[in-house]
Amino acid sequence: MLAGGFISAQDRAIQVNQLPKTAKTFLALHFKGIPVSSAIEDREIYGVDEYKVYLSNGMKMEFDSNGNWKEVDGKHQKLPYGFIPLSIRNYATRNFPNTSIVKVEKKRWSYKAELSNGLELEFDKNGNFKRIDD
Questions:
Q1: Burial (Cβ within 10 Å: 0-12, 13-18, ≥19) of residue 60
Q2: What InterPro entries does the record point to (predicted)?
Q3: CA distance linking residue 20 with residue 114, whole number of Å
Q4: Alpha-carbon distance 117 to 134, whole Å?
């Protein structure tokens, strides 16, 4: 059982140019000018599970095996809003005007956005507000 854990999960450092095209485009579009400090490929027994990218300013992002973003963590820094669904951006700006989104997570059926004041907002897959998660 222990040996299976070593076989099934392998993290390895990769070069930025080894990321899927979708992830490279995302980085170039939304984080232009911020160097990547490291990129990690998380491999499972059946192939690549996800990629983790760490930027020189401390921000971290996770991408699925196709390079689509799953999570972007600004580490308490304001995120660029271009990739965040408009309804989520509008809700946060309208209801919490003195805050910014510092982390966003995209799941299969929902989104979660963390604000600079520590509140976590939950939205459905269409970006409609569901609740504040405390």
A1: middle
A2: PepSY-like
A3: 27
A4: 12
Alpha-helix residue ranges (DSSP H) falling in the chain: 2-8, 21-30, 86-95
Q: What distance in Å separates the CA atoms of residue 60 and residue 38, rounded to the nearest whole number?
A: 10
Could you tell me where the beta strands, DSSP code E, fall in the chain? 10-14, 36-44, 47-55, 60-64, 69-73, 101-106, 110-115, 120-124, 129-133
Instruction: Please name every residue paired with 112 in a beta bridge, in sequence order, or none if there are none.
Output: 105, 122
Q: What is the pTM of this model?
A: 0.89
Phi, psi of 97 (to 5 degrees): -65, -25
DSSP-assigned beta bridge partners for residue 41: 12, 51
Residue of 86, 91, 53, 92 lying closest to 72 (CA atoms)? 53
Partnered with residue 14 across adjacent β-strands are 39
Percent of the chain whose pLDDT exceeds 70 = 91
% of residues, the chain, pLDDT over 90: 85
